[in-house]
Amino acid sequence: MAVSKNSGNNILAKGSKNAPKRLVIERNGTNVIAEPERKGIARDLFWPWFAANVSVLGVSFGSFFLGFGISFAQAAFACIISVVFSFLLVGFVSLAGKRGSAPTMILTRASFGVKGSKVPSFLSYLVLVGWETVLCTLAVLATATVFARIGGIGATPAKILGFLVVIVLTIGGGILGFDAIMKLQSWITFATTVLTLGYMTLTFKHIHMHVINAVHSGSVQGFIGAIVFGIAVFGLGWTNSGADYSRYLPRTTSSRAVVGWTTLGASLAPIFLVIFGVLLAASDKNLNSKIAADPIGALTTLLPLWYLIPFAIVAILGLVGGSVLGNYSSGLALLSLGLRIPRWAAAGLDGIFMVIGTIYVVWFAANFIGPFQGFLITLSVPVAGWAGIFLADVALRKKDYREYDLYNPIGIYGSTNSKSIALLLISSIVGWGLVTNTFASWLSWQGYLLAPLRLGGKQGAWAWANLGVLAALAIGFVGYYATARSDVVRQEQNSY
Questions:
Q1: Is 4 helix (H, G, I), strand (E, B) or coil?
Q2: At a CB cut-off of 8 Å and minimum separation 6, what does 349 contact?
Q3: How far apart are CA 2 and CA 325, in angstroms?
Q4: Which of 41, 158, 171, 466 shows its CA 20 to 30 Å from the CA of 213?
Q5: First to last CA, the chain
């Protein structure tokens, strides 16, 4: 394996067409991608985002949507709204990558300042490492469940097997970098699509419409809660890495195409998978309860024995599709914090943290879904606040970023933008006050604004709607758009 400083162009060594091909490690990190290295078309964005979201975990999420006490029709509608809206946000962040040719957490320096951006960069890093750990954990649990049914191998060896496969693919892809990931994701897309369709065909007989139709409609609060959950679990967690995969595109690429292909690629699979999962979970209360303990492994109970190995493959590959993007982006986020190591080393270091987290959750934590939802709700609030600020900055800017000043604390973007830091703090405080979190005792302080705002308190009808995520997003966007317009105009006047 070779290391090429021009690996932003190709993962294959340069030379004649007949030259032997070698894998090389991407050397580009937090730098702006040089013009000669920008390549590809907007349609290329479909593959990494589709592969990252085609996991059968989407089927299990159908059960979580029903957990808000709503009907099939409400859950399906909530799924479509939340998936498309949240990944549209990712599409707009990807637009910034095309315009700035740099990673997301470098471009956020335009709105937070060169040093002030370390706050959202650290937040981004926590979210990405958390998601990597979640996806790796699910793959390990699914592998153990599959081999428990097949027999011939114990639970612990099965977990170790799944653990090693996911770790090697995730960290390996993250270390190799952009081009290797784009190629890997296209392979994962093909394999997981075929095998997932096989799963849906074999389990379709377990859908019973008379049982589904008997599920009563839920409250408005439950419906909104399901939408917020979908926003948090799908697109919102990817907003902080959207530009990482569009930064290699030429700046002449159509902006509409960048947003459109990103949104389509990321949204297509989850919509079908979640709705199918709602149908399965609504048809079988026993399956619905099993998913809480083992979200993917529970799905194997519907399969014939001969399809368990293909299912294990699709489960692992689908989860790797997400974890490898997370590993790559978290490495870039770590570098944006100021760590002076090569990009591939940052991806490897991040992999070590993922390994430690996965070992804890798989072998020591008593329950999976509780820690997962607690983590998701708590960090979704400040992430939503940051996303609002970043997207407002993208909407205000009419010119490309001034590249040099993204790395210069005395440049036009400054060292720290106190307005953005204050907005992030305000949106987080308000947001946490409007969500409830009973999944860990140390999170019980959340929801403190529900009673003062006459929303029923922590046990009222609005307690589980998690309005704080939407509130944080709105505060970040509206607050920045209203207060930073003149600042952005001044920056762009000084850009040339």
A1: strand
A2: 331, 334, 341
A3: 22
A4: 466
A5: 42
pLDDT digits (tens, 9 = 90+) for 51-70: 889 888 899 999 999 989 99
The 3-class secondary structure across 397-408, one letter per residue, is CCCCCCCHHHHC
Q: Are 46 and 261 in contact (CB under 8 A)?
A: yes
Positive or negative CA dihedral for 270, 276, 278, 280? negative
Q: What's the predicted TM-score (pTM) here?
A: 0.88
Q: Return contacts of 146-153, CB within 8 angstroms, 24+ apart.
A: 146/297, 146/300, 146/308, 146/309, 146/311, 146/312, 146/315, 147/312, 149/300, 149/305, 149/308, 150/305, 150/308, 150/309
Q: Which two tokens stand for residue 370?
A: 């509780």
Q: Give the number of other Cβ atoms within 10 Å of residue 402's Cβ.
A: 18
Q: Tell me how far apart the alpha carbons of residues 339 and 167 are, in angstroms, rounded to a whole number.
A: 23
Report phi then psi at 25, rounded to 5. Answer: -95, 130
Q: Which amino acid is at 399?
A: K
pLDDT tens digit sequence for 355-365: 998 888 888 87
What does the alpha-carbon distance between residue 427 and residue 475 come to, in Å, rounded to a whole number? Answer: 6
**Which tokens belong to 364?**
């020591």
Closest CA to 137 of 343, 313, 369, 301: 369
Domains of the chain: 2-493 (1.10.4160.10)
Q: What is the mean pLDDT of each run of 10 residues along the chain (496 residues)?
A: 37 35 80 93 94 88 92 96 97 96 96 96 90 85 79 80 88 91 87 90 94 92 92 91 95 96 96 95 88 80 89 85 91 93 93 90 72 74 96 94 94 95 97 83 86 88 87 97 94 76
Q: DSSP letters along 98-149, please? A: HHH-S-HHHHTHHHH-TTTTHHHHHHHHHHHHHHHHHHHHHHHHHHHHHHHH
DSSP 8-state secondary structure symbol assigned to residue 447: -
What's the full length of the chain, in residues? 496
Answer whether 281's CB lies under 8 Å from 287's CB: yes
What single DSSP character describes residue 465? S
Give how far Cα 394 sits from Cα of 63, 348, 472, Å: 36, 31, 18
Give the DSSP letter string of 51-72.
HHH--THHHHHHHHHHTTT--H
- Are 125 and 117 in contact, with CB atoms under 8 Å apart? no
The SS3 of residue 88 is helix
